[in-house]
Amino acid sequence: MSKEAIKLAIAPIGWTNDDLPQLGGDITFEQCVSEMALAGFTGSEVGNKYPKDTEVLKKALKLRGLQICNAWFSTYLTTQSYEEVEKAFIQHCTFLKTMGATIVGVAEQGNSIQGRQDLPVFDAKPVNTEAEWKLLTEGLNKLGNKAKEMGMQLTYHHHMGTGVQTRGEIDRLMEQTDPDLVGLLYDSGHLVFSGEDPMEVLTKWMSRIRHVHLKDVRADKRQMAISAKWSFLKGVLEGVFTVPGDGCIDFKPILDELIKAGYKGWWVVEAEQDPAKANPLEYAMKARAYIRTTAGI
User: Fold this and answer.
1) Which among 204, 202, 221 is positioned nearest to 212, based on CA atoms?
2) Pairing mode, if any, of strands 183-187 and 209-214?
3) How far apart are CA 174 and CA 168, in angstroms?
């Protein structure tokens, strides 16, 4: 049992969305982190409103009993020179290490459509060429080695609207990267939105999972996203995602399997919604209660 080794965090994306700044545009950083703590979480990922000065950020988090566990990093290994990507990656890892984090979550954005509101997320999903797979996997191994040298662990975030979204694409990425250098950021919501079985991916790649995003999916909204040809961000706006316990995913077997396997690290509630429709504090508290009831944590 690894319950003692599991820590609970929540992402600021439920308060303010970095990809859609109009969502929660009026919500301050201070309100966000205060409500995270009030809801019973001890960790946070990083949003655009977070102070860039590490001492200012540390003080604000310490007051609330929070710590940084990860921050998204966009790689452009398929469209930029490796040297450009590495330079930005090292700067990002330096910030995270200063904040006490050991995980760095990355996702390839070189051919991503996740930010394109004019393209349907299913029909226009990019597919990597052989050359792009080579650039991606070799680049990730090199970045993973840089992270390791800095005392960090690179974890890859499969994501809707990218070249690593489906189970087959996740399998290929894992098979073609070094297990010591590239971990998997397991995201229940992106798997179910994509149409995958989250338990199959979990059990196959448990040994590679270094970080977990707990995100639920509203099945009716997912079906609308397919039939109405929504973009990824249109899906977010319409409420495809929600917090664990509020959608169609049965989290009990997922959480039980993580505990049984001896998972150590963070479980992060991450559910991007419109805060005007889904009050962030209310949904954070709902998620915290659900995890306590379902997993005993």
Assistant:
1) 202
2) parallel
3) 10
Q: In what order do the strands lie in the sheet with 265-269?
A: 67-68, 43-44, 6-10, 265-269, 209-214, 183-187, 153-157, 103-108, 72-75
Given a contact cutoff of 8 angstroms between Cβ atoms, the answer to whether 291 and 34 are in contact is no
Asked if 13 and 241 count as a contact pair (C-beta separation under 8 A), the reply is: no
3-295: CATH topology: TIM Barrel (3.20.20)
- Strands 103-108 and 153-157 come out as parallel
| pLDDT per residue as tens, the chain (297 positions) | 567 899 999 999 999 998 888 889 999 999 999 999 999 999 999 999 999 999 999 999 999 999 999 999 999 999 999 999 999 999 999 999 999 999 999 999 999 999 999 999 999 999 999 999 999 999 999 999 999 999 999 999 999 999 999 999 999 999 999 999 999 999 999 999 999 999 999 999 999 999 999 999 999 999 999 999 999 999 999 999 999 999 999 999 999 999 999 999 999 999 999 999 999 999 999 999 999 999 999
What type of residue sits at position 199?
M
Distance CA 146, CA 82 (A): 12
Single out the residue of 293, 244, 249 nearest to residue 273, CA to CA: 244
